[in-house]
Write a sequence for this structure.
C-alpha cells in the first residue's frame, strides 16, 4: 500500500490535548474534530464562515481566507479549516472559536476513536503466511528429443516439471497442448509454465517460450454493491503495485441487492447486470495496469470477493432464490472460472477465483474479511461487523464462527435520509452541536461546500443532538429546545438545520428530519439486535466479546463514542475496537498471495454457521428493544446514561 | 449390431464341397469364390459374360440374364452371379463352367479363409465387462428447502447424489450451476444429473428436470484417414442403435497422414482440416440420430479412435513434428474436450474422449483395436495387424505389448496401382486365373461392371498369377506365358488383362502392370518385415505367435491363402487367424459402454512399447529379404514352396 510518511503531534490549548500520529498535510480542523476537540465551524470547512480561528506555532501551510480580516491574520490567527499540518504544532483555540462559553476545550468528555490501522499494520493482522500463490510460474529447461527419446511433447513437459520442480501428477490444459509443439521449440526447449494448484493437483494453464518466471501479477477485486475496488499485486515481491476503484456499474439497475435480483429476473436482465459489473471491472483493471505499466498478459490470476448476490451476478449465476424465503443461493462455493469467459479482457488462461460464501446474506466479502482481519487465527472471542446496506456480523475465533446478516436499510450510506448522500466530497461527515445554543459545527469531506450528509455525519448529528438535549431518546425533537436551528418547516414538521443555505453548495438549508432520525434508529437497531441475537445463539452476550473489528469504508469516518451514543455499538474500551477498512479486499489479497490462505478461506466458509434472523422471534424482541437511543436497556451504555440523566 | 439372420448350407458338386454359414440373400458366385470354389466369370458378376452357369436345387431367387439362352434356362441352368441364396442349396457346376479341364472343382487346394466373426462373436472377444459408462445419468429426488434447511442448491444436489447414489466428492460444472436454481424447481426437486467419472472424482456436467435416466446414448467414432465410421449406442440397454459412415472430408487435402500434416502447416490449413473432419462427423452423427429417431440432447458423450495424426487434427492440436524425425507427437494422452468446442453440433455438456495414442505412428486406433479384440486380456502371444496405408503391428498379450508401424504405401487400398481403386462397388475384389489358359475369372463388389481393382483383388490376382506360372517370384511376368491375357502394351511393357473392355464400366481393358506388382511387393514386404522386426525386438519369431488378429475393412475380402501366397502373412493354420473387421470401432464401443474399459485403454496405451523402424537396420534387412514372392526365405511358406517347385 502507500508508503508510510512521517507523522506529527498536534497539541491543542487550552487543556494540553495531545493528538499524536497526525499525517503530513492533514487538515487541522479535521484533526481537531476527529480527535473530539471542538472548534466552531458552520460551513463544512470551506473557509466561508470564518469561525474556526486559531493561533498556531510550528510548521504548517495555508490558513488564509477572504473571511479572515487582515488584522486578524497579522495578529497570527488562521482558519483551522484551511491549514495543512506540516510538522509538530501547538494550536491555541481562542474563546470565540470554542463551543459555548466553557473555559476549556471539550475533548475530555470523548473517548478515543478506536484503532484505525495503517496499511502496514493491516498486513500484520494475519501471520504465518508467505507469498506462495495458487498460480505460479515455473521455468523449465527440457532436453530436445532424439531417436532414443522421442516421447510426446506433453509427457516431456510433465517430466520436466516433475524433475525440476517436484510437481507430481501434473495435468495440462487442453488449450495449452494445441500450440505446445511450437512454443517448446521457440527458445530451444526453455519455457515457463504457469501452473495452478487445484484441489485435484497441479495444472498447467499457460506455456510461454523462454524464462518469464519473474513477471507474475494478480488482480484482486472487492465487488461491492456500490463500488468495485481493485489492486494489482506483484506475486514475486508480494507488493501492491497499483490500486483503483469505481462505482459498480450495476447501480443504475438498483441501489441494493434486492432490486438487482429483481432486475435480473427480467428478460435479459441478468446478462445486463453481468455486463455492467464486468464493464466496471474492465475500467479498474485498465487503470491498475496503466498505472503500473504492466502488460495484461503478465496477470496470471484474479481473485474477487463480493457478497452472495454480487458473486452470483458476476458469474452470471441465477440469484433468484436469494430473495425468496427460505433464501437459498444457487451455490456458495463456485469453481474458478475463466475470466475471459466472463467477458473480462485478459489472457485466456487467467481464472477468476470467487470467494466462497456462507449463505444468501453472508457472502464472500465477509469470509474475505474474516481472513483479512485475522479473526480466523485469533484465540479471542471476536465480533466482526461490516456495516453497509446490509449489516453483517460474525462472532467467533479460530475454532468456531457464527454469522448473520440483517437488513439495516441504506441510512448508514446516506440513503432514505432527506439530505443524505454517500461519503464523497461535500458530504457532511462530522458534526458537533453546541449544547448551550444548539448551534451546529460541521466538517465536510474534502472541505467542500456542504452538499448533503453522509452516514457518519448523521450518526454524529444524532449523537450530538441527544447529548445537547435537543433530541429525545425516542427519536423525537424536544419542542422546548426549539430555536434558530431546531424549527418547524412549512409542513409543521420539526427539523434541525445542519448547514445554513448561505454556506451550502445548493444554496438551501441542509436539515435533519424526524423521519431521517427514525430511519437511523431502525438501522442501528437492526444491527445491534443482530449482534445481540447472534451472541445469544451461542449462549454469549456483549460482555463475552474480547475485541471488535469494524469493516467497511464507513468505519473510516465513524467515531466510536458517537456510534455508542446512538446505540449502534455498546460502550466499550476503544482499544478493543479496530477499524480494518476494506476487510474484503484485505482477504482477497492474502488469498491471491498465498494458496494456504485460499485453503483457509474455504475452511472458514465451511466452518461458519449462518444464523437466520428472518422469522426469528428472539431477533424481533431484540430489535424492538433497540428502537430507542441508545437502547431501552442501558446496561451497555453507562456513559450515555450518566449524560442523559443530567439532561433530564 | 445387426440382428442375426438364419444361415444356410450350400453344397457344390462335383466334390461334395460344403459351404456353411451362408447368409440369407448371399450372391452365389461370391459364396463360391470366397470359399475357393472356382467357377468361370469374366465380367465381375454382372451377368454379361454368361460363363458362370450352374444347376441348382433348393430355394433361391434370380439367375436369369440376357446372356443365358432360354433353352439353357429351361434345362435348369442359372447364372451363379445373378442368384441369391434363400435356403440350403445343392449346386452342380458343369464342366464348361469349371476352370481348365479338371474333373473336380478345385476347392481342395485352398485352406480356409480364417475366422470372420459375426457381430455377436466380436462382442465376445472381450469378457468381464458390463455396461457402466464413464458418463451416467442419475435421477435424484431432493427435499425442498425450508427455513430449517436452506443450504445452497449446489450443496443440496451434492448431498442428494451422495445419499441416493453413493457419489462422494462430486464436483459440478460451472455451466450447470448457472441455471441450476430453476432446473431444480421445475419438476419439484426431481432432476436427472449427468455425471462423468473423472480421474479426479465424479463431476456433474448436465442437469435436467424430471427423471430422464432411461434416455442415455453415446456416439462412438472411428476416425480413419480415409473414412469415418459412427455408431449410436444405447447406454441403458448396451445395444447399438444405428451406424453410418462417410469418407473423411480431409481427403481433398491429401490422401495420407503425411500430406495432411504438410497441409496443416499452411496458413489456416490446420483449421481447414479440423473443420473438414468435423463436417464429416456432423454427417455421420446426423445420420445415426435420424436413423434411430433420437434427439441429439440425449447423447451424453462421444468416443473417437483415430491414428495419432487424425487425433491431433480432430482436436486442432499441432501435428507438425509427427512427420519430422525423431517423430514426436504433441501429446499421446489428450484430455476429454467439449465436443461443441470442436464445432460439433451437440449439447454443450457432451465431451469427446479421444483414444490415447502410443507414438506418432501407433495411434488410438491401434490401442482401440487391442481393446476391442481382447488382446489385452489374452494369455496367448498374439499378433495384431491393421493393414492400411500404414500397416501397424502389435505383438503381446495381457502383460506386455510392443507395437510398430511401417509405411506400406497405398497399394492395399488400391493406390499406386494403374487401375487401382478403393474397395467399393465395381472394384474387382476376387480373382482366379485358370492355370492352363491364363484366363482370369473375376468378381466385383456389388456385382457391378468392373471399374478397377481393389487391394484384395490385387493380392488375389498376384497370388493366382504366381501359382498359374504367369508371374515369377521376382515380380516379373514370364514372357513364355504370353498369350491372350498376358501381353505387351503399346509401350512394350508387359501387362495382364483382368477384365476385357467388353465387360468393364469404362469400356477399356483393366490390366495389372509390373509397376503395380512392384508396389504390392514393397507394401507386403514392409508389413512382413515390420512384423518380423517387431518379433525379433522381443526375441521371438513367427513360430512364437499363437494367434493373429487382422483388423481393417481390408480383411473382409482378404483370403488368407492368397495373402500367404504373396508373402503378406506366413502360412499358418487358418484357425489361428481372426478377422476382427473395424477393431478400432470395436474398442471405442467398449470404452463408451464401460469405464473399466476406458481405464484399460489408458493402461494399454501406457504399457505398449513403440519400436521405431525408421533408421532401423534390422528392419531394412528384413525388408530387402521380403522383396520376393512370397519371400527369399521360404521357411514360412511350405505350401507355396511346393506349388512353385512344380511350376519350375
Amino acid at each position: 500500500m502507500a508508503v508510510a510518511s512521517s507523522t506529527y503531534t498536534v497539541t491543542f490549548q487550552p487543556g494540553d490535548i495531545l493528538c499524536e500520529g497526525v499525517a503530513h498535510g492533514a487538515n487541522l480542523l479535521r484533526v481537531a474534530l476527529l480527535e473530539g476537540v471542538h472548534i466552531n465551524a458552520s460551513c463544512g470547512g470551506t473557509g466561508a464562515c470564518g469561525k474556526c480561528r486559531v493561533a498556531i506555532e510550528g510548521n504548517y501551510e495555508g490558513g488564509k481566507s477572504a473571511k479572515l480580516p487582515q488584522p486578524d491574520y497579522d495578529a497570527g490567527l488562521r482558519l483551522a479549516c484551511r491549514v495543512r499540518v506540516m510538522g509538530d504544532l501547538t494550536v491555541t483555540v481562542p474563546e470565540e472559536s470554542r463551543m459555548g462559553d466553557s473555559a476549556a476545550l471539550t475533548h475530555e468528555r470523548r473517548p478515543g476513536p478506536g484503532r484505525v490501522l495503517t496499511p502496514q499494520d493491516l498486513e500484520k493482522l494475519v501471520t504465518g503466511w508467505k507469498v506462495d500463490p495458487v498460480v505460479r510460474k515455473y521455468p523449465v529447461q527440457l532436453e530436445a528429443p532424439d531417436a532414443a527419446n522421442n516421447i510426446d511433447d506433453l509427457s516431456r513437459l510433465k517430466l520436466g516439471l516433475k524433475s525440476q520442480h517436484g510437481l507430481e501428477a501434473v495435468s495440462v490444459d487442453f488449450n495449452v497442448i494445441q500450440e505446445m509443439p511450437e512454443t517448446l521449440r521457440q527458445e530451444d526447449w526453455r519455457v515457463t509454465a504457469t501452473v495452478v494448484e487445484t484441489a485435484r493437483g497441479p495444472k498447467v494453464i499457460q506455456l510461454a517460450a523462454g524464462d518469464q518466471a519473474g513477471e507474475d501479477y494478480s488482480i484482486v477485486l472487492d465487488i461491492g454493491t456500490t463500488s468495485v475496488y481493485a489492486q494489482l499485486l506483484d506475486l514475486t515481491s508480494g507488493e501492491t503495485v497499483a490500486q483503483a476503484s469505481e462505482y459498480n456499474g450495476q447501480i443504475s439497475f438498483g441501489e441494493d441487492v434486492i432490486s438487482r435480483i429483481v432486475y435480473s429476473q427480467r428478460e435479459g436482465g441478468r446478462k445486463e447486470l453481468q455486463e455492467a459489473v464486468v464493464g466496471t471491472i474492465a475500467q479498474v483493471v485498465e487503470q491498475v495496469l496503466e498505472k503500473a505499466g504492466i502488460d495484461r498478459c503478465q496477470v496470471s490470476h484474479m481473485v474477487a470477493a463480493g457478497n452472495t448476490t454480487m458473486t452470483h451476478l458476476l458469474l452470471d449465476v441465477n440469484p433468484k432464490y436469494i430473495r425468496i424465503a427460505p433464501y437459498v443461493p444457487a451455490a456458495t462455493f463456485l469453481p474458478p472460472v475463466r475470466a475471459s469467459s466472463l467477458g473480462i479482457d485478459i489472457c485466456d488462461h487467467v481464472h477468476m477465483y470467487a470467494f466462497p460464501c456462507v449463505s444468501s446474506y453472508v457472502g464472500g466479502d465477509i469470509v474475505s474479511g474474516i481472513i483479512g482481519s485475522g479473526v480466523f487465527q485469533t484465540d479471542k472471542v471476536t465480533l466482526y461487523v461490516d456495516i453497509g446496506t446490509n449489516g453483517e456480523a460474525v462472532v467467533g475465533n479460530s475454532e468456531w464462527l457464527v454469522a448473520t446478516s440483517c437488513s439495516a436499510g441504506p441510512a448508514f450510506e446516506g440513503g432514505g435520509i432527506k439530505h443524505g448522500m454517500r461519503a464523497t466530497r461535500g458530504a457532511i461527515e462530522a458534526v458537533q452541536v453546541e449544547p448551550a445554543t444548539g448551534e451546529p459545527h460541521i466538517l465536510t469531506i474534502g472541505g467542500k461546500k456542504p452538499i448533503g450528509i453522509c452516514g457518519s455525519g448523521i450518526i454524529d448529528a444524532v449523537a450530538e443532538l441527544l447529548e445537547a438535549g435537543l433530541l429525545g431518546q425516542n427519536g423525537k425533537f424536544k419542542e422546548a429546545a426549539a430555536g434558530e436551528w431546531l424549527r418547524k418547516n412549512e409542513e409543521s414538521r420539526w427539523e434541525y438545520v445542519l448547514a445554513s443555505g448561505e454556506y451550502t453548495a445548493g444554496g438551501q438549508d441542509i436539515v435533519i428530519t424526524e423521519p431521517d432520525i427514525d430511519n437511523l434508529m431502525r438501522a442501528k437497531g437492526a444491527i445491534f439486535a443482530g449482534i445481540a441475537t447472534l451472541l445469544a445463539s451461542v449462549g454469549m452476550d456483549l460482555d463475552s466479546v474480547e475485541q471488535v473489528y469494524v469493516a467497511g469504508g464507513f468505519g473510516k469516518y465513524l467515531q466510536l463514542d458517537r456510534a455508542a451514543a446512538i446505540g449502534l455499538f455498546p460502550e466499550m474500551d476503544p482499544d478493543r475496537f479496530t477499524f480494518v477498512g476494506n476487510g474484503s479486499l484485505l482477504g482477497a489479497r492474502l488469498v491471491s498471495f498465498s494458496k494456504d490462505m485460499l485453503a483457509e478461506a474455504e475452511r472458514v466458509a465451511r466452518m461458519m454457521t449462518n444464523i437466520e434472523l428472518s422469522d426469528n422471534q428472539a431477533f424481533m424482541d431484540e430489535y424492538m428493544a433497540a428502537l430507542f437511543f441508545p437502547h431501552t436497556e442501558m446496561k451497555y451504555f453507562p456513559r450515555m446514561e450518566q449524560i442523559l440523566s443530567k439532561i433530564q
The CA atoms of residues 400 and 607 of chain B lie 7 Å apart. The longest strand of chain B covers residues 53-62.
